[in-house]
Amino acid sequence: MLLTNYEIYDLAIRSQVFYEDKVSQFPAKAGFYLFKNLKTLKELALEIEEMRRGIINTFQPELLEDGTYRIAPELKEKLQKQLDSLSSLPQDIPLYKLKLEDFEEVKLSGEQLDVLVDMIEEIEEEN
After folding, report:
1. Is there a contact between 104 and 30 (Cβ–Cβ < 8 Å)?
2. Which among 20, 62, 69, 102 could disulfide-bond with 30, CB atoms 3.0 to 4.6 Å apart, if both were Cys?
3. With bands split at pLDDT 50, 70 and 90, how would you rate the model's confidence at 22?
4. How far apart are the C-alpha atoms of 113 and 116, rounded to whole Å?
5. pTM above 0.85, yes or no
């Protein structure tokens, strides 16, 4: 599945709804592949965050007393361009496709469905 780094990071953050969910019971096969996908997204998000921090650190931010950072004003635009470039880089990530029927007996929230929508194979209806 081709996603930008921004989309990968966003999907990894939104996938936390599955870790917080103590109610939904997934069939073993669907749950296995779902959590393999979530693990892949988490690992990629950590790599993206590491690259983002590396870019920021090249601009030698000044640590302020309140715990925030300040970057020289003349470097902010250059920094933002590099961060935008990182965010827009596409990656072809290996996500498993899940079958919709595997989730027929599972109650999913809208947030969970939003995460799953691109991971589920669409069923072609016969005319």
Report:
1. no
2. 102
3. low
4. 5
5. no
